[in-house]
Amino acid sequence: MENWAVIWDVDGTLVDTAELHFQAWCELARELKQPFTRADFARTFGWRNPEIIPLLFGANRTPEDVDRLGGRKEDLYRAEAMKGVELLPGVRSLLNALAQAGARQAVGSSAPRKNLDLILEITRTSPFFSAIVSMEDTARGKPDPQVFLLAADKLGVPPQRCVVVEDAPVGVQAAKAGGMRAIGVTFVGHHSEEKLSSAGADLVLPSLEHVGVDMIKALLAV
Questions:
Q1: Residues facing residue 8 across a β-bridge
Q2: CATH number of the 5-16+86-221 domain
Q3: Other beta carbons less than 10 A from residue 100's beta carbon
Q4: What residues does each domain of the chain span?
Q5: pTM of the model
Q6: For a Cys-Cys bond, which of 1, 77, 93, 96 suits 24, CB 3.0-4.6 Å?
Q7: What is the pLDDT along the chain (222 residues), one digit of tens a residue?
């Protein structure tokens, strides 16, 4: 099989840093003297900061203020992430197997580029990825397919030859809207198998330990 690719979301698929994000948002909210709940976090997880901040902290904020607050939140997050982040089960072996099978690989994430660079550096996974698409590269967040379409374009692989690995319904919806196949992973527990299936996932599994190259190739052969 030639010219095929796997595009990875990061949080919830490569690593689980959701709690680090939650604590960073909580600290920012404390600094702003505004509330921030688990429900707020669940509702907006996977969104881009320019979409989250006006929704939760005031729609009348200027773009400069949104940038400043987003920068502060990510500084708080990176300070915690630097203490150590581990790959989720099955990730490294799958990255290796895909590389050996000739798949091209990319990251397609709503996170800022500094966050992605840090996570890939800590986990020593940068060499696997030929392209990275981050928050700064997109004007529209998931479920819009822009992030994944940009990744496919950077890889030089047609969307229909791409499989996206995701843990969130909005990410699965984005993949499907872009004409791609989607694997949903429930390991981190943020979203149920039912929600991922309802979003259109072609395959939903409890862990990437259960994913092999042949399974991914089979999705593209349909």
A1: 107, 165
A2: 3.40.50.1000
A3: 9
A4: 5-16+86-221, 18-81
A5: 0.86
A6: 77
A7: 569 999 999 999 999 998 999 999 999 999 999 999 999 998 888 788 999 999 999 999 999 999 999 999 999 999 999 988 999 999 999 999 999 999 999 999 999 999 999 999 999 999 999 999 999 999 999 999 999 999 999 999 999 999 999 999 999 999 999 999 999 999 887 788 999 999 999 999 999 998 999 999 999 985
